[in-house]
């Protein structure tokens, strides 16, 4: 149940990433939101917190951010090239063959994941402290 809670709550970070990206902002801050929400979701659904839960929640938040990042790219492709969103999802990987574009896309993802890491440091410390009691 904890995994389900982590996934459902981490979607908030993914949704925030998508919305901010559509507005033209760097969406990296949503990484922190995604991790904190995933950890809280795990805690609520599992009725407790553990080191394993915090780490698992962080991994789930990472995956959700990566998916939101790719879906954001697809949205940009669909609006820029006037294709359907589903076609853009299927074909957006082509952008990674263009070096100048790929560098910017990877930087966006890197910032998002960096903020995920920043967001999980304190919860992991707290979970370790509780486990060592």
Task: Provide key terms for this protein.
0% strand; mainly alpha; 133 residues
Instruction: Kindly state the number of beta strands.
Output: 0
Fraction of residues in β-strands: under 5%
Distance between the termini: 25 Å
Helix % is over 70%
Order of helices and strands: HHHHH
Would you identify the regions where 5 or more consecutive residues have pLDDT less than 50?
Answer: none
Q: Quickly count the helices.
A: 5
The Cα radius of gyration reads 16 Å
Q: What general form does the structure show?
A: elongated
- Average the pLDDT over all residues and give the rounded result: 85
Largest sheet: none
Secondary-structure content class: mainly alpha
Please describe the topology of this protein:
Blueprint: H1 2-22, H2 29-46, H3 51-80, H4 85-91, H5 99-131
Helix pairs in contact: 1-2, 1-3, 2-3, 2-5, 3-4, 3-5
How would you describe this structure to a colleague?
With 133 residues, the protein is an all-alpha fold. 82% of the residues lie in helices and 0% in strands. The chain is elongated.
Summarize the structure in short.
The protein is built from 5 helices and no strands. The protein has about 130 residues and is mainly alpha-helical.
């Amino acid at each position: 149940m904890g995994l389900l809670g982590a996934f459902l709550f981490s979607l908030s970070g993914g949704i925030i990433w998508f919305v901010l990206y559509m507005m033209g902002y760097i969406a990296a801050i949503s990484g922190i939101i995604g991790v904190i929400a995933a950890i809280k979701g795990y805690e609520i659904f599992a009725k407790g917190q553990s080191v394993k839960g915090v780490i698992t929640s962080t991994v789930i938040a990472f995956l959700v951010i990566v998916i939101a990042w790719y879906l954001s790219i697809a949205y940009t492709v669909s609006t820029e090239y006037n294709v359907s969103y589903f076609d853009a999802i299927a074909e957006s990987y082509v952008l990674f063959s263009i070096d100048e574009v790929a560098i910017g896309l990877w930087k966006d993802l890197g910032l998002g994941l960096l903020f995920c890491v920043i967001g999980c440091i304190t919860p992991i410390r707290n979970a370790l402290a509780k486990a060592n009691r």
